[in-house]
Amino acid sequence: MNHPTPAIVSQHAVRRLPRWALFLLCAAYVLPGFWGRGPWKSQDIEALGYMLMLAQPTPGDIVSWLKPTLLGQVDDNLALLTHWLGALAIKLAPTGWEAAFARAPFVTMLALTLVATWYSVYALARHPAAQPVAFAFGGEAKPADYARALADGGLLALLACLGLAHRSHETTPFLMQLSFGAGLFFGLTHLGRKRWHGRLAIAASMLGLTLSGAPSMALMLGVGGAVISTAMPADPTHRRLSMLDLGLLALIGLLCITTAGALDLWRWRIAPHALLNVHDMAQLMAWFTWPAWPLAIWSLWRWRGQLSQIWLHPHLALPLWFVIVTFGTSWFTGISDRVLLVALPAIATLAAFALPTLKRSLSALIDWFTLLFFSICALTIWVVWVAMQTGFPAQPAANVKRLAPEFVPEFSATAFTLALLATLAWAGLVKWRTGAHRSAIWKSLVLPASGAVLCWLLLTTLWLPLLDYARSYAPFMKKVVDVTGPSPCYQYAGITKPQGAGLIYHAKVTLKPLEKPLPDCAWLIVDQQNLPLLSQRIESLGWTEQTRITRPTDRFENFVIFGPVPAPPTVPTSR
C-alpha cells in the first residue's frame, strides 16, 4: 500500500541556498572554540593527558599504545583511536603548541560530521517515498533540487542544536563517536544509491566507533540499519541489497566484535537508577536537541501515514533507529549528554523533513521566537563584555568579579573585529529574513542556525579569555609553580586524572606516585578532599604540609602542597 506524502513543494520553493553563505556559516561554527584557548576541565584536559603520555613518554617508562595510561590508570572510555590521533599530531607539534596540534584531527572530525549529515539527508530525500506530491499540470519540485534544499535544511538544523556547540569543540572520544556515527548514517543512506561509497563508509565508521569506545553502539546501529536497508523495496534509484552486501556487513560486524574482544574494549555501564529519572532525561533531551526536536516530532506527525510500514520508508526509519538507539544508550548508562551527540544528525534529518509540511503561521512563529531569543543572547554577551572592559554597567562587572575574582580582562582587536562583523552579518540576515523575498523551504532554519553560530562565535571571541580562565587549569597550576618554583618532578596522591593532566601540561613536570621525598622530586601534591585518608601515610614518609591552594574559580577544588620535613639545625659542639 502506498501512503500519500504530506510534502507539497513547488519548484520555486527549492532554490539553492548560496554555497558561499553555507560554507562561511560552517567555517564560523567549526573553527572558533578550537583555537586560542587552553584545554578545559575535565574531559578535554584528561584526553590531552593520555595523548601526552603516548607522544612524550617519561624516559624509562614502557608506553603501551593499546593500553594508554594517565596517573597509572587506563582510560575508562577505552577510546584508543582518540588518543592515537592526538598523540601522532602532538609528535609533529613545536614546543608549546601541543594542545593546538592535538585538536587538528578533531577539527576535521567536526567538519566531516557536517558533510556526512548533508549528504545523508540528500540521499534520503532522493528516495521515492520521500518525494513531494506530483502536481496535475507539473511544476512540482524536481527530485535533485528538492533533495538539495532538504539537505541544506538538515545541515542548518544540526548547526542550530544547542547541545552541539560545546561538546563538539572538545578533544574527547565523544566527538569521534559523533563523527563516526554520522559517517555510519551516511554509509547506510548510500547503500542503495552508491554501493561502494556506502560499504567503505560503513566499514570505516563501525571500526572507528569500536576504537572510539562504543563497540556496542557500532553493532546496534550498523546491524539495525542494515536490516532496514534490506527491507527497502527496489526502485530505479535505489537497488535492493545483494547477498554480497549482507556478507560484507556481516564481516564488518565480526571484525568489530573481534577487535573489541582482542583489545578488551567491551564495557557495559548500566545505571538502573537512571531509568526512573524520567524528568532529567526529558529535560536533557529538551535543551540539548533544541530547536530540532520540535520539528522532528512535527515531521513524524505529518508523515504518520508512512509509519505503519516504516521499513519501506528509509527517510523515517533510519533516522528514527539512530535516535532510539542513542537515546536508549544515554538513558541506560546514566543520562549522558555526550552520548546524545550521536543522535543529533538523525534528529536534524527528521527536522529537515518537517520543512515541506510547515504552515506559514508556524514558520513565522519560529522566525520571531528565534529572532528574539538569539538577539537577546547576543546583546547579553556584548553587555557583559563591555562591563568587563569598562566597569559599566556595574552589576555585570560585579558578577564577573565575584565569579572570577583574579581575572584581568584583556582587549583583543582581532576578537572584537570578528565579533563586530558577525553581529553586523546577523543584523543583515534579520533584515533579509523579515523583508519580502521568494519562499524557500529551508528559510525557517536560517535564523536558528545563524543565531546559534553567532552566539557561539561571540562567546569564543569576546568571552574567550574569561571562559579560558574559568575552565582552564592554567591559573591553578601557576599558583602551584609559584609555591614550588621550577621543578622537574612532583609526587602525587589522591588527585584526579584531569588534575594530573593539568600538572603535566601546564606545570611541565613529571608525576610520580607517593613515596619518600627524593632530591629531584621534593614536592607532594594532594587533593584536599582525599587528605584525611592519606594523612597518616604522608606523615610516616617524612612529608610536612607547606601550604594550601584553591582553584580561583572553584572554591571546592584545593591542593595541599607538602615538602620534606626540614632537618633540625646543627648545634655546634663545644670543645
TrEMBL record:
Keyword Transmembrane helix part of the UniProt annotation: yes
Keyword Cell division: no
Keyword set, alphabetical order: Membrane, Transmembrane, Transmembrane helix
Transmembrane segments: 17-35, 103-125, 171-188, 200-223, 243-263, 313-332, 339-356, 368-387, 407-429, 449-469
Superkingdom of origin: Bacteria
Name the UniProt record assigns to this protein: Glycosyltransferase
